[in-house]
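Slide 14.
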Amino acid sequence: MLKYTKFFELLKARGIKQIDLREQGVHPRIFQKLQKGELIRSDSIDQLCRILQCQPGDIMEYVADEKSAEG
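Slide 15: predicted structure.
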């Protein structure tokens, strides 16, 4: 399962708000999906990384859920 906790920590650390991302072309639905922990497309990840000047691992991480960990 992908978690986007790092994304929100990065925004907070840099003082970036949702409106700042929207002004740079990030659709509000992308932000909503991130808040809900839903999957987003790779082109959206690319856009966020370009805007934030970061790597994908700076905004998301893989965390095995219990079902995956059990094998």
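Speaker note: The beta strands are 2-3, 61-62.
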